[in-house]
TrEMBL record:
Domain Major facilitator superfamily (MFS) profile residues, every copy: 229-417
CC per GO annotation: plasma membrane
Name by which UniProt lists this protein: MFS transporter
Regions that span the bilayer: 21-45, 57-81, 93-113, 119-140, 152-173, 179-200, 230-253, 273-291, 359-386, 392-413
Entries under Pfam families matching the protein: MFS_1
GO molecular function (one): transmembrane transporter activity
Membrane topology: Multi-pass membrane protein
Keyword Kinase: no
Domain of life per record: Bacteria
Keywords recorded for this protein, A-Z: Membrane, Transmembrane, Transmembrane helix
Entry's localization field: Cell membrane
Amino acid sequence: MSETIPAVATARGRRQSTAFLPLYVLAYFGSALAVTSAATVAIPLRLSTLDPAGKTQLLSLTVGIGGVVVMLVTAPLGRLSDVSTSRFGARRPFILGGAVVGACGMLVLAAAADVPVVVAGWALTQAGFAATTMGLQALLADAIPARIRARVSALFGLATGIAPFVGGMLIGALPGNPLWWFGVPAVVALGTDLAVVLVLRDEVRTERVAVGWRSLARSYWINPVRHPDFAWAWACRLLVTMSLVTVSLYLLYFLTDRLGIATEDAARASGTVLAAYFAGSVVTAFVFGWLSDRTGKRKLIVWTSTLFTAGGLLVSLFAQGLPVFVLGIALAGMGQGAFVAVDMAMLTEVLPPTSAAGAGLAVIALSYQLPQLLVPALATLLLAIGDAGPNYFALFLGSVAAAVLGALAVLPVRSVR
């Protein structure tokens, strides 16, 4: 049977209640809190205890395997969601079911007594929340009108910016027990995802569509030759995400190994750094999200904000103490606030019209999931340069280079101003 999937332009969900939008953003925040708090604080702390000497290599391995899992499951789940005929709706089962699986993975992480169990728990966590995130992002095309999409993207960016800050401060304030570190964010994610599922007026499809392995494999692909604007915008997001993931992933170890902050104070210091990032991003996210919707300009804001991000990271690169490092991260946050507010809106506008919401946005999702695989592999090489221990200077220089390349990648986009 041939597969026919409705296009994004006609895949609008039902009109939503007034409670939907705030709960939608809150659900995105809850899922981001669970994933980012684990990746940037809880897992690095756990690995520091299990193997202090090999912590950077083990973190790269753990995050890299998690990245592979996310890549493998997101696009097929997006396609399955697009054709789902569940009586509970097309997106609901994936949002809530993914949160349950992800929370179970967090519990495995909390109980892990050795590195293999940490890796397994993180893989399960990533698989679950990949499904949740896919469902939530598909709703951006399903249920959010184009005229306010940049502002909603700004709220997503705000939620993502708050999540690591709240996660770092939360873990720093909780008792020094992994059950608290992983358990509390998991409960928050479950609660927020359940809330949005309860108010969501999801689309229930009745026409069954056969989906084979060949169709699922195509979920990973949108032809870059036929759709060059999408390809360039996708590459921009990939490179910028690689830049930021590099910093956030190794932030805790940078603070302890390069800036000399004590391990017991590192979680709180990480929270301070992320608070500066959030403070820098919150204003620019709303201002440029509104400005982009008002003027229709996406490309110009994406390009300039990415260069500004690179400048902030360059300041952090040469920091010899926490204050200058915080300043650089705040500047990078200002650039990222504008970037995340506009970039996702731009991507949905250059998305080929023949792509269904879940599958198309799943391809977009690969642009920020691939870095979870690529960054650990590249970071291992950069950290190994020289004989004086982990080379964090080379690592951050690579981060700056990725941001600059991301700015250049958006220039060939023609269909969006």
